[in-house]
Design the sequence.
């Protein structure tokens, strides 16, 4: 049986060992990739037995490291209760600050320690304390590099994992290999001829020592040398694809700043000032040392928006509340690109125009496997005399078809600035999947912006599309990527 | 999204054996989703624009209107009633009404429990956790004599609907609802009273004496609000709940102005066939078709006007009626049509330049990576502070691409080296200006200043720029004497920075090889190209 030099080295390395984990194999002349390739080929040739094992690895996030140092918020409250017997919730809030206070109260409530009459007491049976202490022990253990969790503490570990941003979990796969009888037999018969030529070198060509000698025949099906691919990020590939579609459909590309006045992000889009999307829980609000003033044109537009919010326009009733200019002048990280889109259309309010953007937006979310605090929004909009539901359907069908979804279904939905609003449902492996939103922009918005015609618009989240395209199960992989994945993901041709 | 929960048994009772199919097709009319995996806990997720459907009874009612093709509404009867309203500072807007008896109605669900769930859900969402309006519901038989709304003594003892006893002050600090809504407490406490005593203390409690019980078949509902808008929303949604189900309400004449506000500003919406055509794209649309379809949605037509149901607070004008028409008619039936206008697509220049730089980097052997704009650390002071970060790890807006790229190396230190990585992305600098940059790192054996200088030279050569000058600077994270800014035309224009990463930085991150770094401002490079 023909063996490559890599396979021979590896067989010789493992022949006197019992089971070896591939990550523990270290051979001077072989890279990690060489070892991986040799294992695969030796397994294929039936010379070694291979089994795959999965190991869980945990590490602490920065927040987790803070709790490692100062203790979990609930532990600090528990320690206080052990010392004092009871504590007023105001005292706990002062001690921990607002954020950690909420965490502590919520965690203690889960363990049955709820505030009664504004006070928390230590209960008679101290089961909660045991669980809290074990939670802290787990953090300590992870920080010290002991990433395995015993079965008895598994429930506590799971509850810590569910709490966003403390512990990060990774599953690593590795192969355990062992030489088998056939392998031992082949090793025993190894006879490396010194006369035949393996690698043809520059020296041989120069001094002619290759002449008259035989070249050792290679196994032509062995894996080749590992050449690492380099290229664009998968999201960029996808962005390029989406851009090409829009450009081919005649859309102008937009790029605008991430920081917006709430007036553009919300008020101009007829989102009322008490809308849930404007809460601190949904939007990243910003503060600047030097107060940012909207331009005179923007300020006037915000005031026009305010009037329409309060009293409506033409035959529309408006929201009927007291609008506040200061709210519109707050600055934030834009939650969508729609403000930019509408601003671009309003600059040439009498012209028919089609615009698009694929750019980042921000939402007040904890980062975990299915949520990101920032992602890319794909958005297209058309301001035209005959823009209507029928033309919107036409564009949606063409656009989604170009993305690879030949069949779409439109279902009624709700967005504050479009009416009618429709969600786009696509079918993937026979399952319905809500992919994006669309609609005809409300007349109140076109009134605020002074637009002459109807506006139709649609959008979707790029990362959601990326999950489908690249078969991912964790959104973070797109931003906190492994180099190995970036260089080996499957390209869509 | 608002979730209304029910069970398979209930849906079978209300709709019939084919409930799933019926609910599925109705969900595509209204635009809600439902999860029926657990027969004991079926969740219906509704969009926030339809608070009138925030109970299973209301959804079922709307389903039957749609199925039947027209609504049967109850009436609002204005009657003289003895009612006393005191001027109060806290929650100064108030209305109350009485329902007619629903004992003999053919409604298959329990109105009492359904309304309590509905009013609670609506007060939490539309009522902004009762800050905008709150609702009290009472057994009509238990209310005695003249009703009064006004200030009450906080030291008055009451028993809450769930049996907790104490003074109002004590209960606000002890009772679950008191703690939850404690932030709404102001200087005065207001209450709804009858001749026996307190019936409710908005926005906190209803009392045990007047609570809704199994025998209740007529209710008195009170709504207190902090603004006229809140009062109208609360009134329309609460009174509209009963009206939509064919139950009359009796509104004391003292509140006639509330009713008139709806009658004069909200009840009638004018529609025009040309506008409907313009929005939908349906040509030659007929009034009969409009009438038939919107009737199914519960909207009636009176001459040129549509009559907006009392509980449809989402309808603000003609476009909302058009949407209901589209829902009933079916968006699938609307013909697709291309625009008459043709447009010519145009790339954004900055994005196009970034794309070209990216292609160049790939051709030089680099792998593109992407990092978050929100980060933990920045080199300089921030122009903008995130007021409400979710976590420290994502609390600052990046000012350069260095931290993201070096963190990438740290995360990938177990991969083989050398690693050539780059990123093009936006930053917001210390002056608050957003710019697109390209940053790259070469990390591996032998990576040094001249490695990235070689990359810069390649970019400069590819761009046709004749000369750039590197001016030494001192920069944290880099080795002194091996870091500088990249300048064009004798420092007139700075287009970036390059240097060799300090061993302290590498050690701190456990990166096992030397690294060198280059970051270019794409707009500045582009402006150099225009000069060159």
Sequence:
């Amino acid at each position: 049986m023909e063996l490559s030099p890599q396979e021979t080295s590896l067989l010789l390395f493992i022949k006197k060992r019992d089971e070896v984990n591939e990550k523990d194999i270290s051979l001077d002349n072989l890279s990690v990739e060489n070892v991986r390739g040799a294992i695969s080929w030796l397994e294929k040739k039936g010379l070694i037995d291979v089994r795959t094992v999965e190991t869980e690895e945990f590490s602490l996030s920065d927040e987790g490291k803070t709790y490692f140092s100062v203790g979990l918020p609930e532990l600090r409250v528990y320690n206080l209760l052990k010392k004092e017997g009871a504590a007023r919730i105001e005292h706990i809030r002062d001690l921990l600050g607002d954020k950690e206070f909420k965490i502590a109260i919520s965690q203690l409530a889960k363990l049955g320690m709820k505030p009664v009459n504004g006070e928390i007491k230590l209960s008679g049976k101290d089961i909660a304390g045991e669980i809290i202490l074990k939670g802290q022990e787990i953090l300590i253990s992870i920080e010290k590099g002991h990433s395995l969790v015993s079965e008895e503490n598994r429930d506590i570990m799971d509850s810590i994992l569910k709490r966003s941003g403390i512990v990060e979990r990774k599953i690593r796969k590795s192969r355990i290999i062992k030489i088998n009888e056939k392998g031992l037999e082949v090793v025993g018969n190894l006879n490396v001829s010194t006369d035949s030529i393996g690698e043809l070198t520059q020296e041989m060509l120069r001094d002619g020592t290759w002449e008259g000698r035989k070249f050792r025949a290679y196994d032509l099906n062995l894996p080749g040398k590992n050449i690492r691919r380099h290229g664009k990020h998968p999201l960029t590939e996808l962005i390029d694809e989406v851009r090409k579609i829009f450009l081919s459909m005649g859309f102008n590309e937009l790029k605008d700043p991430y920081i917006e006045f709430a007036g553009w992000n919300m008020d101009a889009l007829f989102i009322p000032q008490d809308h849930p999307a404007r809460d601190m829980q949904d939007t990243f609000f910003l503060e600047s040392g030097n107060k940012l003033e909207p331009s005179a044109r923007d300020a006037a537009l915000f005031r026009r928006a305010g009037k329409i919010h309060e009293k409506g326009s033409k035959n529309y009733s408006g929201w009927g509340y007291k609008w506040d200019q200061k709210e519109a002048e707050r600055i934030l990280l834009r939650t969508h690109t729609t403000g930019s889109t509408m601003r671009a259309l309003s600059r040439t309010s009498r012209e028919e125009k089609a615009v698009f953007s694929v750019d980042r937006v921000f939402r007040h979310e904890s980062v975990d496997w299915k949520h990101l605090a920032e992602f890319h929004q794909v958005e297209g909009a058309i301001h035209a005399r005959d823009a209507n539901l029928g033309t919107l359907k036409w564009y949606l069908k063409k656009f989604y078809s170009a993305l690879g979804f030949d069949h779409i279904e439109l279902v009624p939905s709700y967005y504050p600035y479009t009416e009618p609003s429709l969600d786009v449902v696509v079918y993937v492996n026979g399952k319905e999947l809500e992919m994006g939103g669309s609609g005809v922009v409300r007349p109140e918005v076109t009134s605020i912006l002074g637009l002459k015609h109807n506006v139709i618009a649609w959008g979707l989240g790029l990362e959601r599309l990326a999950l489908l395209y690249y078969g991912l199960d964790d959104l973070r992989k797109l931003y906190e990527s492994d180099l190995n994945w970036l260089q080996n993901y499957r390209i869509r041709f | 999204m608002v979730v209304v929960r029910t069970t398979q048994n209930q849906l079978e009772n209300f709709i019939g054996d084919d409930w799933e199919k019926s609910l599925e097709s109705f969900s595509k009319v209204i635009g809600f989703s439902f999860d029926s995996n657990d027969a004991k806990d079926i969740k219906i997720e509704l969009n926030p624009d339809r608070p009138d459907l925030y109970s299973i009874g209301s959804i079922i009612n709307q389903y039957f209107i749609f199925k039947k093709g027209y609504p049967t509404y109850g009436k609002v009867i204005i009657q003289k009633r003895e009612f006393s309203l005191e001027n109060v500072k806290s929650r100064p807007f108030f209305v109350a009404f009485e329902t007619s008896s629903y004992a003999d109605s053919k409604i298959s669900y329990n109105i009492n429990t359904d309304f309590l769930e509905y009013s609670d859900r609506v007060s939490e969402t539309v009522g902004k956790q009762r800050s905008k309006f709150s609702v009290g519901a009472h057994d009509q038989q238990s209310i005695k004599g003249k009703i009064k709304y006004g200030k009450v003594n906080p030291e008055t003892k009451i028993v809450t609907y769930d049996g907790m006893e104490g003074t109002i002050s004590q209960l606000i600090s002890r009772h679950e609802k008191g703690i939850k809504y404690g932030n709404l407490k102001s200087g005065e406490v207001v209450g709804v009273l009858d001749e026996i005593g307190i019936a409710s203390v908005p926005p906190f409690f209803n009392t045990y004496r007047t609570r809704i019980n199994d025998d209740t078949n007529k209710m008195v509902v009170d709504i207190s609000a902090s603004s006229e808008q809140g009062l109208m929303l609360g009134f329309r949604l609460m009174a509209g709940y009963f009206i939509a189900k064919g139950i009359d309400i009796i509104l004391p004449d003292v509140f006639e102005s509330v009713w008139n506000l709806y009658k004069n500003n909200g009840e009638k919406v004018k529609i025009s066939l040309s506008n409907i055509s313009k929005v939908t794209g349906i040509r030659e649309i007929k009034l009969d078709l409009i009438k038939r379809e919107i009737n199914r949605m519960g909207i009636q037509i009176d001459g040129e006007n549509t009559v907006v149901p009392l509980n449809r607070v989402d309808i603000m004008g003609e476009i909302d009626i058009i949407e209901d028409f589209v829902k009933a008619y079916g968006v699938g039936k609307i013909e697709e049509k291309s625009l008459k206008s043709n447009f010519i697509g145009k790339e954004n220049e900055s994005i196009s330049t970034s794309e070209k730089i990216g292609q160049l980097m790939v051709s030089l052997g680099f792998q593109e990576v992407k990092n978050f704009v929100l980060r933990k650390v920045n080199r300089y002071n921030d122009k903008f502070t995130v007021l409400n970060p979710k976590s420290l790890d994502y609390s600052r807006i990046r000012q350069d691409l260095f931290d993201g790229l070096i963190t990438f190396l740290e995360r990938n230190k177990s991969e083989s080296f050398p690693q050539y990585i780059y990123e093009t992305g936006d930053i917001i600098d210390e002056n608050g200006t957003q710019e697109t940059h390209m940053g790259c790192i070469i990390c591996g054996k032998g990576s040094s200043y001249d490695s990235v200088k070689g990359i810069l030279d390649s970019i400069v050569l590819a761009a046709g720029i004749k000369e750039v000058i590197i001016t030494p600077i001192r920069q944290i994270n880099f080795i002194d004497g091996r870091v500088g800014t990249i300048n064009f035309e004798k420092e007139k224009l700075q287009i970036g920075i390059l240097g060799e990463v300090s061993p302290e930085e590498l050690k701190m991150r456990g990166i096992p090889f030397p690294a060198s770094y280059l970051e270019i401002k794409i707009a500045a490079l582009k402006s150099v190209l225009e000069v060159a």
